[in-house]
Protein 1
Amino acid sequence: MSKSTVSLILKILTAIIALAAFIFFSTGKSVAQNAAPSLKAVPTISGPNITLGDLFNNAGAASSRILARAPQNGQSMVFSASALQARAASMGLRWTNPDGVRQVIIGSGGTMPITSTTPGLGARPTGAAVAVTRDLVVLTRDVAKDEIINADMVSWISSDAAIAPDTILDASQLIGNSAKRNLRGGTPVRAADIGPTMAVRRGQPVTLIHEASGLKISLRGRALTDGTIGGSIRAVNIASNRTLEAIVESQGVARVLIPTTSTQITTTAQN
């Protein structure tokens, strides 16, 4: 056998080995990428937020999505399986809960999944007292009076305890509103505890926008009443001491409703 023939055979064998290695590693990577998400046995939550990657193996692109604020030292957070599934699905992670987990308790040091003791999610032994379990919206931390509630401050717990008729069950009713009093984290919130966020507060400075004949004028004013965005307020023009009616447009800004002549106000025209 000539040297050229041996060299050709070696090249062919090398190519076959390289192709086999490529197929092996590519297949392994594909299988890993397509593996179903599963709860971690020992999750690690070290940052200020709980991410899907903290709780699930094979979370993929959804790993960095924030689930909720991490509980403070000594505190815990409880997710029912259904609430956790819904939150994960909304972020692009499909967890089928093959182990029948009923709830996940998230503490400051990690989580502890509690699985059903009988077949079927949430099944109970025959003859046992059956409690009605519901998902409740709670705050992840204490909220001060007048503080605006945002999405990062909201989580869910599963509870079979009796609740007040006006207990809030929908997170959208919390987000964007303000606390009417100091609220404790981890406890259900009642409708009477929150209210619309005030963009203008009584006694505080407010910029009054007045437009007439194509001229836009900014007035320094003081609010006489509270007001939400889109709501009406009464405010006094500091320069003329005249009381005006206005519609709140944004934080600390309102548009004058009652026309005011240029001889009654002292203003600075805006470009």
Note: The chain has two domains: 39-122+129-195, 205-269.
Protein 2
Amino acid sequence: DGINDAPALMRADTGIAIGAGTDVAIDSADIVLMNSKLSDVAAAIRLSRATLKNIHENLFWAFFYNIICIPMAAGLYGFRMNPMLGAAAMSLSSFTVCMNALRLNLFRLHDASHDRKLKHPALAEEAEPEETAVCHVGGMMCEHCEATVEKAVSKIEGVTAAKADHTKGTLEITMNRPVDMSLVKAAVESKDYTWNEEGEEKKMEKTVRIEGMMCEHCEASVKKALEKIDGIESATASHTAGTAVITLSKDVDEALIKEAIEDRDYKYLGME
């Protein structure tokens, strides 16, 4: 919708701009959504497919009609056509094609019942929130040791990923459900490595709902503000979803998060 989007709109196979955007963006786009509603993007795709289908129907009718009637008009079938009948037949062909094209006026743009099925549909259910635990493991000396520990821990039910680092002596475990750490300890010690109880720390992920982010610059501004807070290791903001996912190494006062966001002139809506 801005001046900086014009080059991308020009390079795209099909550039779409919103009616409320800048004149440069509108002039660069192939399609303009006059109502500035994203639902009109799907409507435009439906209309383009219906138009192409209508063109194919008209071409088929024109070729079929002419293949039959032109030889007839030339007398190849032993039938001598009156010129007035020929003119009427030609007009009928044009009339049929025009009437078929006018059917597009009855096309329902926002009816998704006849849409094509997605080849790779998104998951209907949201993935369960994952939790990360960082443990300290002694005895790892090389990449082979890392792979051995990772393979042993990954076999535990509930562990979705394991990343070992022999230089730091750590093991980062990603879990989609609570996992008994004694099972992790047993898996590590079964491979002749040592387990450090005191080195274990848990990371939590929370989603902050934010209103007012409009672009990647807004995302970077929110990310920078959140990562300055003690206890927040990382933050990933998304202006399309209106959220920021933060990774916490310890409990952080929600008021600090709210203050950091509102200092950047965005609206804090809550945290999940």
Note: The chain has four domains: 3-37, 40-106, 131-192, 205-271.
